[in-house]
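Instructor's aside before we start: the two examples that follow are unrelated to each other. I chose them only because their records fit on one page, so don't look for a connection. First example below.
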Amino acid sequence: MLIRLRLSRRTLRVGPKLLLMLLVSGLAAAPAHGSFRLSPRATRGDFEAFHSRFSSDAYFYPRHSASPLGLVGFEVYADATYDDEFDDQSFNGTAVDGSYIGGFLSVARVGARKGLPGGIDLGLAYGKTLNGDVKLISAELQYAILHGGVLEPALSVRVTGTRTVDATAYELSQYGADVLLSKGFTVLTPYIGAGLIRSKGRLDRGLLPSFEDTETHGVAFAGVTLNLLLPKINFEVEKGEALQAAVRVGFGF
């Protein structure tokens, strides 16, 4: 319990500053081949451990409230995650070649969301592991059960899909569903949620037989949106296989 509390404080204190710096320089300027990649020499056990943790970290968490954008609403954004204990895991001994930038794992995304009729929002994002070679395309569809108001909270359900693109050794195919609850105030909109994800991973081992693994597990998250005129800033704490933090900076209305 003390370890988790210490991790949480470190994440919330250090993560946002690092993530915002990485968003500026990492996703667009990162080299095509990062300094770490999943190794074809991984043992089955280390591959499965890597896949379990990485697929959880790479899940397409909402990082926004449950309120629908509305017919004319839209948002464009950039975000990034921060898992400061990924480098400490034993599976790195055989599963990963190279090293992590700063000793932590971060997945950065740029994306857009658009409001549709009937309380439906549609989103699409492109992501990449910073200093790594895993690239992701993600999509989300959200439906607002309660739109929210002065006294009423907003409640939404969301389905997501993520898969790797231009894969080298590691391939990921992931689907998820979650529920969000939020309540808007003048400047801040806190929200919470939970869901279930199913992730299928595959490791291409060249001339050797490929490894495959499928994981199903729950996720939970809590965050707050700082409702500035421009931009909107989201801080989110996410719990899947591990605890991580995320920051999103978005523009829109």
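Example two begins here.
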Amino acid sequence: MSAAAAPGVTATDKAGTAPKHPRSLPLGRVLVYTVLSVAALAWALPIWWTVINASKSSHDFFFHSFYSVPREFDLLSNISAAWTGAGLGTGFINSLLYGVVGAGASILIASLASYAIVVLRIRGGFTIFLAIFSATVFPLQMYIIPLFRMFNSLHLYDTRVGMFLFYTAVSVPFCTLVLRGFYSTVPRDYREAALVEGAPEIRVLQLIYMPLARSAMLVLFLFQFTWIWNDLLFGIVLTSSPGVRPVMASLSSLMGVYAGTSFPVVLAGALVAASPTLLLFFGLRRHFTQGLTLLAKRG
């Protein structure tokens, strides 16, 4: 019979193997985690301060510390006042329409253009691409006066149709740049096999190229929707009535109405205006990551 092991001594210790200790994180990873934590805190604190101050009453806001917890929870009443004041509710709906229609239409147009240029290889395709992309060479602010005059002459000023056309046209060049690069990486054998089966070109685009580019299109939709939603300059220049203005222009008008008397209403309006893009990003974050990875590999 073997001798019993001494109390507190394991078989591993008897074999001469040192007990395992948890590994410490490398210094580089600790630094990365620290930087990311500081960045997350710097991003979250302004949102937190906006939320707590949007929840205050006017008396609480002006007579207590900016960083204090609200003594009266008035967030819903402030949101209601912001929604009805200065047309913020109408601007919210307008921006939803402009963002969805403008981003969706620009992606569809860019997809058709990219397919014609890269896959069908139409004559002068690269020249057409340069003509489309050349609109982004100069800052958009340079086109304010020509755009204003053109919209006036075409009776598009202060109309939703005019805003749809503007946002779609502005978004097409970048979408074309991205989808042109993506479609050029798709093997041509897919198209040739579909044509042999009798599929027309539009079905090849619809059933092969567009599904493969789904993640890239979702990333483009997120980018273009966010840009359209956050636009203030052209929303002010090309519109004048609250029934047509986008949400950021309405939020600017709201500041003029409430900034001196009830600033929590303005902050509540800012929360309402910021919510769609945040919800869209978190809802599409999986596709966003996949799309960026796919574009990086194929770009």
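The two ends are 70 Å apart (CA to CA).
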